[in-house]
Design a protein that fits this description.
The chain is α/β, with parallel strands linked by helices. The chain contains nine helices and 15 strands. The chain has helices at about 40-55, 115-125, 125-135, 150-165, 175-185, 215-220, 245-250, 265-280, 295-305; strands at about 1-5, 15-20, 30-40, 65-75, 85-90, 100-105, 105-110, 145, 165-170, 190, 205-210, 225-230, 255, 290-295, 310-315. Strands 3, 4, 5, 6, 7, 14 and 15 form a seven-stranded mixed sheet that branches. The chain has a six-stranded parallel sheet with strand order 10-9-8-11-12-13, with helices on both faces. It has a two-stranded antiparallel sheet with strand order 1-2. The mean pLDDT is about 95.
């Protein structure tokens, strides 16, 4: 099979197409022929040297989720899975490949009416967005500020918050991305590359969903009302926002970080099924902005790092 391998940390050029042996499912495993492979920003950071923090060391095949068709099953797996459309859910390793070995606890059926590309686009971001939105307790009338609102997960958070009846303020980079955020239902949009952007938010917010981190996340934290709720889960700016625990405690603000979205296999499988079901019912729409052949994974990473892509980029084996 064809796969993408990283033999050493570095720029996108270290993503190299290789021929690899076809995987054989062990007990409690299946093999999925991937038809759409998810990409997320953190994979570019892992490739660039963050891998040590995630326990990922070269050589390795990147990727953590994909969608396709089950073509083989191991001992203990119901043969009825063969030929079914399925997602190798978030947490599956080595999905930048034509064939992906998946533990049964991370295998989720794709509902009728949902394309495999849509399923792949929800496999990471749909799960994380659903988890964060549920923890945030967003209700009708809440003011919710979403940083990185035009990203793969940000676009889903906008939709979930709007569906909950919140007043949604979407912050992103540039008019093209802001137009997408408005299309998804945000009531107000803000370009956080402009000076004084926090003043355009229009006052305090009840919930901050920070998918950007860094100085932007720190500035947004000052907009959260006393007693509010923050998810500081993003780091595309180069690091997570360095929020003061003492200040959060003084103001009665609940802060959740990236550790709160490290889910068990069972939680991941349940939230994957939820996100896929919402999409199949037309209540949640992943935004797929661009697709790349698997062999062009390096180009996909370059585009992601350059912030060229609103929504999702997928690889197509």
């Amino acid at each position: 099979m064809r796969a993408i391998r990283v033999d050493g940390y570095g720029g996108p050029e270290v993503l190299v197409p290789v021929e690899a042996a076809d995987p054989v499912p062990g007990a409690g495993e299946a093999v999925v022929r991937a038809e759409a492979v998810d990409t997320i920003f953190v994979e570019t950071q892992i490739r660039g040297g963050w891998g040590e923090q995630f326990g990922i060391h070269p050589p390795y095949v990147p990727g953590g989720a994909a969608a396709g068709t089950v073509v083989a099953v191991g001992e203990g797996v119901d043969p009825e899975w063969l030929g079914r459309r399925a997602v190798a859910a978030a947490g599956t390793r080595g999905t930048y490949a034509e064939l992906v070995r998946v533990p049964l606890e991370r295998l989720v059926a794709v509902p009728e009416g949902l394309e495999r590309a849509q399923a792949a686009a929800l496999a990471h971001d749909g799960v994380t967005a659903a988890s964060i939105a549920a923890r945030a307790g967003i209700t009708s009338g809440s003011r919710v500020l979403i940083l990185g609102a035009a990203g793969g997960m940000g676009t889903l958070l906008v939709q979930l918050a709007v569906a909950a009846g919140a007043e949604v303020i979407g912050a992103a980079r540039g008019e093209r991305k802001l137009a997408l955020v408005r299309e998804l239902g945000a009531h107000r949009t803000v370009d956080y590359t402009q000076d004084g952007w926090t003043e355009q938010v229009g006052g305090p917010v009840d919930v901050l969903l920070d998918g950007v981190g860094g100085e932007l996340g720190l500035a947004a934290f000052d907009l959260v009302r006393d007693g509010g709720w923050v998810s500081a889960h993003g780091a595309p700016s180069g690091g997570f926002a360095r929020l003061s625990p003492q200040e959060a405690e003084r103001r009665g603000i609940t802060v959740h970080g990236i550790q709160e979205v490290q889910l068990t296999a069972e939680q991941t499988r349940r939230l994957t099924a939820f996100a896929l079901g919402e999409a199949a019912a037309g209540r949640l729409r992943p935004v797929i902005a661009r697709t790349f052949p698997l062999a062009e994974a390096a180009e996909a990473h370059r585009a992601i790092e350059a912030r060229e892509i609103p929504g999702k980029a997928l690889l197509l084996p």
